[in-house]
Amino acid sequence: MQANLENRPIATHEASYPLAIHDLTVAYSRKPVIWDIDLDIPEGKLVGVIGPNGAGKSTLLKACLDLVPKASGDVRIYGQIYRKNRNLVGYVPQRESVDWDFPISALDVVTMGLYGNIGWLKPVRSQHKAIALDALDRVGVAQLADRQISQLSGGQQQRVFIARALAQQAQLYFMDEPFAAVDAATERAVVELLQDLRNQGKTCVVVHHDLSTVTQYFDWVILLNMRVVAAGPTQTVFTQENLHKTYGGKLTLLVEASEALKNLGK
Amino acid sequence: MIPALGNFITEWAGWPEALDVLLLQNYNTRLVVLSTTLLGIASGIIGSFLLLRKRSLMGDALSHACLPGIGLAFIILVAFGGEGKYLPGLLLGALVTGLLGVGMVIAVRNTTRLKDDAAMGVVLSVFFGLGIAIMGLLQKMPGASAAGLEHFIYGKAASMVLSDFGFILTITVIVIAVSMLFLKEFVLLCFDDSFAATSGWSVTLLDMILLLLVAAITVVGLQAVGLILIIAFLITPAAAARFWTDDLRGMLVWAGILGGLSGWIGASVSALLPNLPAGSLIVLVGSGLFLFSMIFGNARGILKRYWKHLKLKRKVGRQHLLRSVFEIIEAELRGESREPVNMAVSVDRLQKHRTWTPKRLHHLIKAASKEDHIESFDAHTLRLSEAGFGEAARTTRNHRLWELYLISYADIAPSHVDRDADSVEHILNPDMVRELEARLLQKESSLAIPRSPHQIEEKGVTP
Predict the structure, then answer these.
(1) Confidence of residue B258 (pLDDT cuts 50, 70, 90)
(2) How many Cβ atoms sit within 10 Å of the Cβ of residue A198?
(3) Pairwise CB contact (< 8 Å): A91 & B435
(4) Distance (Å) from the alpha carbon of B257 to chain A's nearest alpha carbon
(5) Chain center to CA of A150
(6) Is residue B338 part of a domain?
(7) If residue B333 lies in a helix (H) or strand (E), which one and from where to where?
(8) Is residue B406 part of a domain?
(9) Of B234, B256, B272, which residue constitutes the final position of a domain?
């Protein structure tokens, strides 16, 4: 474990980093899920978050978005706490996190990305719908705008979710498994879109499962297994050795974790 | 009418009277019917949000937790020398303990590992038990039995007076107006609360507003429907509305209409048959409307779904027939190494191709000729029309593409693939077909029909 330390970048909280995480620990009912995360994500990168099930990938995203309470540490978005800079952030939750039987259209879902801008009690206007429609067009499903969302295929639903984040017109995007259970055409379209965003100087942090496409899709990777095993440019960090540490090292981590908990009690 | 209903006949005032009640011509019942109709509309609308937030039973916990509040409010009112039966005072008490009950459900859920349903079960029974106990104690207080507090349990619409009506009218108008004002926020809250939180909305605050509206409707509905049955007033119209529409605004309108109808008809019938309390009749009418919606709803009713299923079944039958004809032609001409062209095939051979009974095959042929897929047929031969042959070629092609896909991507043995392909190919849409083409076919042959990856055998009687 000692050897990993050199792979961990030191967080600086400079405002130039879209995302800087310092000493972040998150626990669910006193059981730590992610430990002591230190990360500085540079601007304009496609960042893949990789790790086995239960490694805390979604939790890391949720902690960055203030959706789960932090046990310790802090997260800065362009140098500020989340609440101050949240209009710079776009979010694509896991597709299964909502009820797709809900009685609304694809366009209604995408418009939700603009509700934050519209503000309390003000109605959705036609200029908002135009932005939403444009976002749907960018993911290639503008023709499905009026379709009720249960009538969309899994890939189309995922595209609608991504369009909603696009409508947020953010600088930093968090996406939770946007490639899970989608068809090949959707995967291609989403990857192209991510590259577009990157070329516009935006940063995307993407939870990803398919190890075979990591080098192809991402400039940067975070290898996560309760703690950051390694993080950095894909060519240097995405190595056999680091992968083995990430996917094979779970048991030792748990032992370490329970010992740390014991020490905490002393 | 049967003798057992004799009681009712003596009470039944006759049709002209019934019409007067329904059309609000009768002064005595006008207020009651108007009140329950209004309540129905408002609870349909607010119940829709409750249903979509998946908190239906929260309304039940809330209403049961109202009972001790009514009793306590009565004691306090009397203690301060006022008249015990002061409706806004009693309902304020109900509101306080109702919200307290919901607060306790949330507290139990957040501090223990119990889930919502268990937390609600515990809190609901504790509050209701407490309420019954207080009601029992009250029986000894002067004027308590005359106040008719027990009406809040089962509801007694007929006891409403003009001031009650004004009160109900005010509250329902406020509830409807506020829920329209918060339409955008509530939709976001119900669909995706974590996204709402990340884009700066306070989920707790929105939940509180929604809950407060539900509480307001529950409390004003107590007098008419009673605390046990109010949950049906909140949920049944909303659930029924879902069968008629896939659009949220449509759902709110439908739920309002269905709720209003239940209130109107239920209270009217109760006015004509005083032995039947309004609360139960409203619920029964609402449930009847629910049943009707479930069967006939034009968005997702049972009949609609059955009709869709029937259409798919027909399509499957037609595609099987056309593909069989194509495969027979293909087999005939392969001997002569020619591409398949439209030609007559023997009905006898067709029957052996799949396990069709003669009756089923005849039925399929009849149906296909109605769709102009068949040019001519008699007892022995059958010939497809141009359109039919084109459709047959397309169907066969999709079937084979799907088979190839299963073999190359899903690792299914070629001998098993025909059966698996059968179930999916009928629902392939153009997008999926293009995807299959891109994966499986060389560019130059993309319009050709791939050869079957397995031996096509005749499944009928072996010759």
Answers:
(1) very high
(2) 18
(3) no
(4) 18
(5) 24
(6) yes
(7) helix B302-334
(8) yes
(9) B234
pLDDT at A185 over 90: no
- Is B178 in the A-facing interface, judged by CB distances under 8 Å? no
Q: Name chain A contacts of B251, Cβ cutoff 8 Å.
A: 103
Give, for B168, the enclosing helix (H) or strand (E).
helix B162-181
- CB nearest to B248's CB, from A62, A93, A104: A104
**CATH code of the domain covering residue B81:** 1.10.3470.10
pLDDT in tens, B209-240: 999 999 999 999 888 888 888 988 999 999 99
Question: Testing the interface with A: which of B51, B194, B195 to mutate, by most A Cβ within 10 A?
Answer: B195
Residue B374, classed as helix, strand or coil, is strand
Domain range spanning residue B103?
A: 25-234
User: For residue A18, what are its two tokens?
Assistant: 């879209």
Provide the mean pLDDT of chain B: 85
How many domains, chain B?
Answer: 2
Kindly provide the residue ranges of all beta strands, DSSP E only, lying in A122-202, ordered along the sequence.
Answer: 172-176
Interface predicted TM-score (ipTM) of this complex, two decimals: 0.88
B159 C-beta neighbours (distance < 10 Å), count: 14
Sign, CA torsion A146/A147/A148/A153: negative
Residue B20 lies in a domain: no
Q: What is the CATH number of the domain that holds B406?
A: 1.10.10.10
Q: Say if B291 falls within a structural domain.
A: no
Question: Per-residue pLDDT tens for B359-407?
Answer: 888 888 888 888 888 888 787 888 888 888 988 988 888 888 888 877 7
Q: Based on the domain organization, do B322 and B230 belong to the same domain?
A: no
Domain closes at, from B209, B234, B259: B234
Mean pLDDT throughout A64-79?
A: 93
B179 Cα to chain A: minimum distance (Å): 10
Q: Are residues B181 and B319 in the same domain?
A: no
Kindly tell me if the per-residue pLDDT of B83 is higher than 80.
no
Whole-structure pTM value: 0.82
Tally A–B CB contacts below 8 A.
81
